[in-house]
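FIELD: query
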Amino acid sequence: MDTTAIIIVAAVVVIVAIGVAVFMQRRTKTLQSRFGSEYDRTVDETGGRMKAERELSQRAKRVESFDIRPLDPNDRMAYIERWRGIQAQFVDDPGAAVAGADRLLGEVMRKRGYPVADFEQRAADLSVDHADVVDNYRAAHEIAMRHDRGDAGTEDLRQAMIHCRALFEDLVGLPDGRDRQTQREEERHVRH
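FIELD: result
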């Protein structure tokens, strides 16, 4: 091979390497922006950035295949009324209120179009469009499990209700049918 050919091949290799690096960096920033703290949690859980990014990309692709839809106004109002009842129940029976909140979250998720499999799959699916509150959901679930073992008191259960409320409000969305994640994305777009 002559010197010119070697230089051309080397230049092409360098350009491709730079392109791959730029693509990977852009992908990382996009995933970090979309998933927030869930990105870091997944990196820790999977043991590396590449595995985490592959996992998060697969989650996003999985959720894109769902028929996620806003609640119709009547369903939305019915769920809000049920939530109010669950909150009122907290005074007399905090454990039952947290269990009721969890069941209601499952119903709202199902109505919106999320499959409601085991808890970890639900949390993973929610992390795609509700990354800001999925940590709350995990924390509430952990408290509920501790309560079942007798290791969580009333203050813990109050915190679980606060966590559940954050996800509930995100899932029921705004009166115009948009969910809070869509609103946040629209606000970010306007600012930039």
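FIELD: remark
The mean pLDDT is 85.
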